């Protein structure tokens, strides 16, 4: 009898600790692998977006050159000015796309020489077309025809087509590789989830089995006490009450293990909570039987150390890692959905939209003893309203969130109409500013700059840049630490039909 309880205690402590540690290891592996796969997916996603943008810009450049060349030929053949109507627009579009391709391929040193040659080829090609048009306009038909018959324009176009084909082929290969990598990631994630689930189910079953066995031992011990001490009613009643109480706790522990841990197999946070419950029960059990156990027993010391220090620290790590994993997965989904959302052009007043966004932050601005001024004087926009709302809302929210302590907040929102029917919006604040080395970093996904004293996942500005580029524009910033930051974004006042179809 005296040896039974210490033996049972050591058995349940050892088996429970081993099984809980095994469950912790399985959860750590699942969390770590999932975070790694999420990072890989984001990397592949960024590369696919970059390849898509490069391919789109290249196709638009080729189409612009073809349009300009067709316009030139029609005019040279007929001398009818109507054929030159699309020429200037196509020429401007071509050079804009050259700039876009240069920006996309700038990080790749191996593309420097081909890009330089492309820029020269485009200048030479349009110079040749401009010259033939000029000759035709001055009625120097023979000279224009002689210039065309040199076949220099054809040679330049052939050279440009080689570059176009190379970029399109490379982009298609990158897109194909990206799809393959995403499938590989999905397979890895599936196998990790299945393997981890099997391990956790085994842990749950093992802990439940240990609890049931311990409950049976307690019940058997109770029967032995009743048989051996039949004449000592008071002692029997006391020990029976203690055993009933311990048995109830074990039954509750078994219920938690078999029900609450088995149900949320696909929810890592659920498993972590149940492990915390299990550790609490184990600690309570150790405290209950501390008087019956030998304090010098290394098993008891190890069990107490694990229940009070080691396991809570490990569970804390799992919780923080699981939250980070949840944030990463939610950001990519958000960018993917946004990347796949169809743009819908609407006609709306930009001043009203900015004022409404500012009104939504008025409470926080008032708390900072600040003000938001709006000076928007542009015609109504015909673009995707939701995208513009998200862009303005994110920039205003950043200005309020990262304000400088010690001075009233001042945010100035201005907008003006540029040439070629483009709109420029500037959002300037007198906040704490951004260091020079972080000016580009703040636009990177999951990257943040400066003191990390505000909540956030580092996706706001990356999301803003994606939205602006989807509208056919771009965003830049200038900042001085301690003085303030100014974001400037430009995009077409009217959403281009090609971007509506592309989405």
Please tell me about this protein's structure.
This protein is of the alpha+beta class and 503 residues long. It has helices spanning 4-78, 87-105, 112-137, 141-149, 152-228, 233-260, 268-288, 298-340, 350-360, 362-367, 385-401, 460-470, 497-502, and strands at residues 345-348, 371-376, 381-384, 410-418, 422-429, 474-480, 484-492. Strands 2-4-5-7-6 form a 5-stranded mixed beta sheet. The protein has a two-stranded antiparallel ribbon with strand order 1-3. Helix 1 packs antiparallel against helix 7, helix 1 (4-78) packs parallel to helix 8 (298-340) and helix 5 packs antiparallel against helix 6.
Say what oligomer this is: single chain
Extended strand count: 7
Q: What is the total number of structural domains?
A: 3
Structural class: alpha+beta
The radius of gyration computed from the alpha-carbon positions, rounded to a whole number of angstroms, is 35 Å
Q: Mean pLDDT score, rounded?
A: 76
Shape: elongated
User: Spatial order of the strands in the main sheet?
Assistant: 2-4-5-7-6
Calculate the terminal CA-CA distance, rounded to whole Å.
77 Å
The number of helices is: 13
Give helix % range: 55-70%
Instruction: Please mark out the parts with pLDDT under 50 across 5 or more consecutive residues, or reply none.
Output: 1-5, 246-265
Which range does the strand content fall in?
Answer: 5-15%
Order of helices and strands: HHHHHHHHEHHEEHEEHEEH
**Biggest β-sheet description:** 5 strands, mixed
